[in-house]
């Protein structure tokens, strides 16, 4: 039996390798050649922004479509006001399918959780998750990210150990709404953060950079749980502001295969509040200690690109009583994308912002 299992695993690995080799061959025969216009604009951008074109190349003159599946979801915890027991809720729709569109300095992204990716613990179809993002660069080294996340329907990960009995149908109506933002500064302009995060560029030579980052988030949770599990709390609010210093390094092989590794660490502030129906609201103020290792790897050619990326976020508070929002978050993403040629009207419209506002 062991020999059979080994043989099956070998066949499976062989098929996976063949798939990637076939995809690379397909990308070579279907990819259109680079336009002379693109080459001229790439050199012009390098001269304007002051980076070495031997290290990175941009695809700002291409319309970039990327599909992905991700587990980038925010679960949360809260502590019972009656017996101090922790309830740890994760979204029923924690896996999202999404699509992003990048062109020049701006990107929009939308994702949702289809029914077939939701947890089988959920007892009806009311659970839903979606995310909308707007990302753009102020300049070549300043990046801004904005995101709206909405989850309805959760599963209690501690349901087997909690003494609190919560009807799963009530959790189907629990909601989390979160507004998130991040501001990055890429210190080394020969390092391409775009190549790692959005694939709007390609790192040609291995390089790394320190990246100071400011992250901020506002969350509102309507638990819709029975009184015995939350006292008389009707919703929870949380504000997070965290300053981090990170370092990312991309290792490049043959100018197309890459591996990015890095870590972010920093301090922040958290304000959390329980809204109580009798008017005795509870508030907590805390210092946040944040650590966030990160990785990415994949294949990045002129037309086709694919890869995986992820990180693990750990946020510790000085006051554990405010831990109603989960301080650990796992993120994993698989993507596949293609770069199309742009057209003159698009260049003129978006080019105006580049020329007059410096994007």
Q: Could you give a short description of this structure?
A:
By secondary structure, the chain is of the alpha+beta class. It has six helices and 17 strands.
Description:
- The structure is a single chain.
- Helix content is 19%, strand content 50%.
- With 359 residues, the chain is of the alpha+beta class.
- The chain has two domains: 1-30; 36-357, Beta Barrel (Lipocalin), CATH 2.40.128.
- The termini are far apart.
- The relative contact order is 0.15.
- A hairpin with a 5-residue loop joins strand 14 and strand 15 (282-300).
- The strands form three sheets. A twelve-stranded antiparallel barrel has the order 2-5-6-7-8-10-12-13-14-15-16-17.
- The radius of gyration is 23 Å and the shape is elongated.
- Residues 1-13 and 322-326 have low confidence and may be disordered.
- It has helices at residues 2-30, 36-49, 168-171, 193-197, 227-230, 344-357; strands at residues 56-58, 62-70, 76-79, 86-91, 96-103, 106-112, 128-137, 142-152, 154-156, 175-185, 201-203, 207-222, 233-253, 257-276, 282-300, 304-317, 328-341.
The portion of residues assigned to helices is: 10-25%
Secondary-structure-derived class = alpha+beta
CATH domain class name of the largest domain: Mainly Beta
* Distance between the ends: 61 Å
The oligomeric state is single chain
The proportion of strand residues reads over 45%
Q: How many domain modules?
A: 2
Mean pLDDT over the residues: 79
Q: What value does the Rg take, in angstroms?
A: 23 Å
- Quick one: how many beta strands? 17
SSE order: HHEEEEEEEEEHEHEEHEEEEEH
Q: Which fold name fills CATH's third level, the topology of the largest domain?
A: Lipocalin
Poorly predicted segments: 1-13, 322-326
């Amino acid at each position: 039996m062991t020999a059979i299992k080994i043989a099956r695993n070998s066949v499976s690995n062989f098929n996976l390798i063949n798939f990637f080799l076939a995809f690379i061959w397909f990308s070579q025969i279907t990819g259109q050649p680079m336009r002379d216009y693109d080459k001229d604009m790439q050199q012009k951008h390098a001269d304007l922004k002051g980076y070495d074109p031997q290290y990175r190349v941009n695809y700002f003159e291409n319309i970039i479509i990327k599909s992905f599946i991700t587990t980038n979801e925010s679960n949360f915890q809260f502590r019972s006001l009656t017996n101090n027991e922790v309830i740890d809720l994760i979204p029923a729709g924690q896996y999202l399918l999404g699509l992003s569109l990048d062109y020049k300095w701006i990107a929009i992204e939308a994702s949702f959780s289809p029914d077939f990716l939701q947890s089988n613990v959920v007892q009806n179809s009311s659970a839903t998750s979606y995310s909308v993002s707007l990302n753009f660069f102020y300049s070549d080294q300043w990046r801004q990210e904005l995101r709206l996340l909405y989850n309805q329907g959760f599963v209690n990960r501690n349901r087997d150990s909690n003494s609190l009995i919560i009807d799963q149908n009530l959790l189907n109506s629990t909601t989390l709404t979160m507004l998130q933002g991040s501001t990055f500064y890429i210190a080394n302009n020969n390092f391409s953060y775009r190549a790692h995060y959005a694939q709007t560029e390609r790192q040609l030579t291995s390089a790394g950079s320190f990246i100071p980052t400011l992250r901020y988030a506002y969350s509102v949770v309507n638990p819709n749980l029975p009184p015995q599990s939350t006292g008389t709390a009707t919703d929870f609010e949380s504000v997070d502001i965290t300053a981090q210093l990170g370092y990312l390094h991309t290792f490049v092989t043959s100018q197309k295969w890459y591996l990015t590794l890095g870590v972010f660490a920093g301090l922040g502030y958290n304000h959390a509040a329980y809204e109580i129906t009798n008017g005795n609201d509870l508030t907590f103020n805390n210092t946040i200690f944040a650590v966030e290792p990160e990785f990415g790897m994949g294949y990045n050619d002129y037309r086709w690109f694919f890869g995986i990326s992820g990180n693990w976020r750990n946020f510790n508070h000085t006051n554990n009583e405010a831990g109603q929002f989960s301080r650990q978050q796992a993120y994993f993403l698989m993507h596949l994308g293609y770069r199309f040629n742009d057209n003159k009207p698009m260049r003129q419209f978006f080019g105006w912002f580049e020329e007059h506002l410096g994007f």
